[in-house]
Design brief:
By secondary structure, the chain is α+β, with helices and mostly antiparallel strands. It contains six helices and ten strands, in the order H-E-E-E-E-E-E-E-E-H-H-H-H-H-E-E. The strands form three sheets. A four-stranded antiparallel sheet has the order 1-6-7-5, covered by helices on one side. Keywords: DNA damage, DNA repair, DNA-binding, Glycosidase, Hydrolase, Lyase, Metal-binding, Multifunctional enzyme, Zinc, Zinc-finger.
Amino acid sequence: MPELPEVEVTRRSFAAAIEGARVTGLRLGKPLRWPLGVDPETLLGARVGAVQRRGKYLWLPLGAAGGLLMHLGMSGSLAFLDTTPASGAHDHFDLHTDRGLLRLTDPRRFGAVVWGAALEAEPVATLLAGLGLEPFDERFDGLHLHAALSGRRVAIKQALLAGDIVVGAGNIYACEALFMAGIDPRLAAGKLSRPRADKLALAVRTVLGRALEAGGTTLRDFRDAHGVAGSFQMQAQVYGREGESCRRCGTAIRRIVQGQRSTFFCPSCQKR
């Protein structure tokens, strides 16, 4: 599933090329998670503004024509092409511009392209409501994290995945951040001390920063808009390493299931 680093890497890979482009056509394939919500003809001639990201959503502003909110779902990817190849069975959205073609490929069709008059207008506002702080927002620190976790009985890893405190700490990155901070993923979130919250906030930012530098994570099929795979998986300390030796202490990495997601951790380095 594309997480924040993969979505941001995707944005960076095509944002400069498409900014200022004029929309010349729009093709819809099989239905995605939600309907587009506008007659495609009304978008013709619109100019694409600076592409923005909020959490795992991308916003393509189209001036007076509003904008498009895009989500890659569980298996989606965007490609920006200077040619117009025939659409495949899993190509469900094409935005034709005078600078190239932006194509959404999504085999499982959990992704979405939704029109909105503005970021603050419905349905976009509702879809973005409830998202936590961006991990690189200066307001996201140990103080914020500790206060937001107060009273929560859910496991700390599940609290990170929820996305209402901080966005971007998806499954892989939550595992890696908890390892970096030395925190057992089963710890009740409300029991996290302030000093450990400081360590975890820093770890979240550090792990996500490294993932961005590595072009994201490609476990199966993630590619950026130019077809380039990510390599963060090569740096993973615990994720996907069940039974292998911890690179810090030599203890075998354990795998458990939390909320139907695999969790990897070192039972020696990470404490409750």
